[in-house]
């Protein structure tokens, strides 16, 4: 792994460059053997080698077949050195989303219009519509057209405040831990993401309102099912309750699902009263693939956000200077999830635990 990914690459534009393991899109290195894949570190390259070696060797052989023989011993030696990192990696166990993937049961606009694609992404008001109408007439069409959808006033202030109270009590209980990168347990992850998180199923004491939120999310997805692209959604993860503590931490540009682990839709609910992005920061900036524009989403109270989880929507959380709360759920496509289970050993982490879509409470 010798070359920084910042150099122009005629074969892959920047929107397609992300760490094959964790999805990070900054300060990448290129695989010295196939020269087609990117990693944020040698550690992640090694962890991903068991999967990558199949395509890496094939790509290397193809490139060698297309190139004339080297003119000198020096050129031949340089080629060997360029692939040495990949060649030294042995069968390190890896998986789609690493140890975070496992199986279970499925149970006003605030958008920055400057240099962004959000002028066509005006939020709908969830409180004024039935779940079925909101899903069929707004969310599904908006997702299919833009890949991003914003719903404001989703549950109303009273319900939103009760969910916020649950989240704050959970945070104060000391059950949050530092957000981890895939298969990485070291402090270096703090340079990439600065949130604190807790995984919630909804049955835990003091999480009744969080469970209600998940049931309402599930209700919308159920009404949208078979109308969101070609996906057939049959489950989701537990809820990831996240807090950025307001000390200037964020989450660098990344892709949620770079490895086809089954997650197709990211759904985020925000809980931040009187949020002012100019003062508090914390914007979620989405860079839709193939577009020069971006969308800035303010983490406003009672706002619900949907977007495709794969490489079509690289995104980042910009530094937050006030306490920032959000609840995220990822929904699984049945076919992609089944293929991922066949290909990779699954760990016991929370992100891949599948639970049943809940009925509305």
Descriptive tags:
nine-stranded mixed beta sheet; alpha+beta; Pro_4_hyd_alph; 361 residues; hypoxia-inducible factor-proline dioxygenase; five-stranded antiparallel beta sheet; metal-binding; 17 strands; Jelly Rolls; vitamin c
Q: What form results from the Cα inertia axes? A: globular
Report the portion of residues in β strands: 15-25%
CATH architecture of the domain at 147-347: Sandwich
Total DSSP E strands: 17
Enumerate the spans where pLDDT stays under 50 for 5 or more consecutive residues: 2-12, 70-120, 182-188
Gap between N and C termini, in Å? 52 Å
Oligomer: single chain
Structural class: alpha+beta
- Work out the helicity level: 25-40%
Summarize model confidence as the mean pLDDT.
Answer: 77
Q: Profile the largest sheet.
A: 9 strands, mixed
Order of helices and strands: EEEHHHEEHEHEEHEEEEHEEEEEH
- CATH superfamily annotation of the domain at 147-347: q2cbj1_9rhob like domain
* Count of alpha and pi helical runs: 8
CATH topology of the domain at 147-347: Jelly Rolls
Q: What Rg do the Cα atoms give?
A: 21 Å
Which CATH C-level class of the domain at 147-347 is it?
Mainly Beta
Protein name: hypoxia-inducible factor-proline dioxygenase
Catalytic activity: L-prolyl-[hypoxia-inducible factor alpha subunit] + 2-oxoglutarate + O2 = trans-4-hydroxy-L-prolyl-[hypoxia-inducible factor alpha subunit] + succinate + CO2
Cofactor: L-ascorbate
GO molecular function: ferrous iron binding; hypoxia-inducible factor-proline dioxygenase activity; L-ascorbic acid binding; zinc ion binding
């Amino acid at each position: 792994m010798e070359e920084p990914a910042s150099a122009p690459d005629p074969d892959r534009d920047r929107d397609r460059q992300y760490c094959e393991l964790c999805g990070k899109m900054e300060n990448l290195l290129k695989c010295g053997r196939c020269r087609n894949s990117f990693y944020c570190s040698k550690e992640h390259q090694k962890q991903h080698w068991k999967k990558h070696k199949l395509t890496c060797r094939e790509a290397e052989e193809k490139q060698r077949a297309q190139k004339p023989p080297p003119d000198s011993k020096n050129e031949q030696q340089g080629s060997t050195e360029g692939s040495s990192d990949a060649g030294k990696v042995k069968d390190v166990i890896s998986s789609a989303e690493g140890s975070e993937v496992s199986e279970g049961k499925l149970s006003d606009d605030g958008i920055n219009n400057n240099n962004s694609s959000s002028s066509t992404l005006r939020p709908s008001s969830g409180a004024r519509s039935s779940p079925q109408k909101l899903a069929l007439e707004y969310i599904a069409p908006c997702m299919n057209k833009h890949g991003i959808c914003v719903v404001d006033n989703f549950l109303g202030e009273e319900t939103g405040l009760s969910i916020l109270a649950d989240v704050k009590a959970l945070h104060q209980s000391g059950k949050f831990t530092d957000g981890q990168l895939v298969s990485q347990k070291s402090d270096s992850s703090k340079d990439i993401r600065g949130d604190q998180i807790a995984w919630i199923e909804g049955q835990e004491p003091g999480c009744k309102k969080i469970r209600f939120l998940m049931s309402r999310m599930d209700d919308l997805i159920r009404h949208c099912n078979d109308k969101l692209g070609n996906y057939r959604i049959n489950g989701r993860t537990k809820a990831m309750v996240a807090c950025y503590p307001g000390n200037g931490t964020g989450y660098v540009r990344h892709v949620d699902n770079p490895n086809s682990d089954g997650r197709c839709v990211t759904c985020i609910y925000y809980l931040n009263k009187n949020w002012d992005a100019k003062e508090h920061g914390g914007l979620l900036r989405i860079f839709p693939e193939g577009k020069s524009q971006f969308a800035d989403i303010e983490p406003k109270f009672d706002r619900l956000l949907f977007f495709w989880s794969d490489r079509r929507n690289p995104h980042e959380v910009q530094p937050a200077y006030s306490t920032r709360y959000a609840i995220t759920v990822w929904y699984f496509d049945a076919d992609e999830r089944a293929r991922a289970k066949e290909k990779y050993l699954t760990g016991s982490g929370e992100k891949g635990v599948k639970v049943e879509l809940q009925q509305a409470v």
